[in-house]
TrEMBL record:
One of its GO terms (biological process) is bile acid metabolic process. Its EC number is 1.1.1.47. Keywords: Lipid metabolism, Oxidoreductase, Steroid metabolism. This is Glucose 1-dehydrogenase 2. The keyword tRNA processing does not apply. GO terms for molecular function: glucose 1-dehydrogenase [NAD(P)+] activity. Belongs to the short-chain dehydrogenases/reductases (SDR) family. The keyword Protein biosynthesis does not apply. It holds the Pfam family adh_short_C2. It comes from Eisenbergiella tayi.
Length: 270
């Protein structure tokens, strides 16, 4: 089986980290970008310098028909798709009292329907080609931990976790695995060293004392795409440095860690 990756939203951030790790491990890569064409050109050059083939295409995956077109294109340029990583998405945090219908439609189309439609097309390609492939969703620890102003984005990520389980059941007879990778706080710019990863008070509250990197997410994705992970399916693997492990602290001092330190508005003195 050829080692080929199709990743959506691959030109920047976590997507770029994933694409480069796969290329370093012998994969040819096809990826989509939304607006960052310069970054897409740069990534293509980096992958080719690693001795692998690289292809890119602009795609607005919230638009109807785009998922089918993107996966068909990737299968054509790569010859076959052995792994698809659905990564393209946008974070939208909205107070429930201010939520707009267009916000819901956009996040649903991009962060939920886009994932499922790409996965559906890839699954059909893998089954017809008798490819025991890998389908990976990049989600978020927000799909497991509740935050305010996160009913929309976090709710969609939680929905993907549940959808992954059903897909894993359906596709297991074909040797295809389906899993989610749920990053926590991840640095997406800079050299990913020193002050950039651990310089803020928030980063220091993470149990491991720092943010994660796109390369670390890429290494996890590459493992889940490998033959060594052939017995792992229908699960969510969190990569967050322990970010969501702490619960509300009994100690409310400034250095106590994550939690609610102030009284709710309705309990405060008027």
């Amino acid at each position: 089986m050829k080692k080929t990756l199709f990743i959506t939203g691959g030109s920047r951030g976590i997507g770029r980290g994933i694409a480069l790790v796969f290329a370093q491990n012998g994969y040819d890569v096809a990826f989509t970008y939304h607006t960052a064409e310069d970054a897409a050109v740069s990534l293509k050059k980096e992958i080719e310098q690693l001795g692998q083939k690289a292809y890119y295409r602009q795609a607005s995956l919230e638009e109807k028909g785009t998922a089918h077109q993107a996966v068909s294109w990737a299968a054509e340029v790569l010859g076959e798709i052995s792994c698809i990583v659905c990564n393209a998405g946008l974070t939208v945090h909205t107070d429930i009292r201010k939520m707009k219908e267009e916000d819901i439609d956009f996040v649903y189309r991009l962060d939920y329907a886009g994932y499922l439609l790409c996965a559906s097309e890839a699954a059909k390609h893998m089954i017809s080609g008798e490819i025991p492939g890998r389908i990976l969703f990049v989600t978020s620890s927000r799909g497991q931990r509740v935050y305010p102003e996160d009913a929309l984005y976090g709710g969609m990520k939680a929905g993907l976790h549940r959808a992954c389980e059903s897909m894993a059941l359906e596709l297991s007879e074909y040797g295809i695995t389906v899993n989610c990778i749920a990053p926590g706080n991840t640095a997406i710019r800079g050299n990913f060293t020193g002050e950039e990863l651990s310089g803020s008070k928030f980063q220091q509250k993470i149990p491991m004392g720092r943010s994660g990197t796109p390369k670390e997410v890429g290494k996890l994705a590459c493992f889940l795409a490998s033959e060594d992970a052939g017995y792992i399916t229908g699960t969510v693997v969190r990569i967050d440095g322990g970010l969501i492990l702490p619960v509300m602290p009994e100690d409310v001092s400034e250095g106590a860690g994550p939690g609610w330190h102030e009284l709710p508005a309705y309990m405060q003195e008027k």
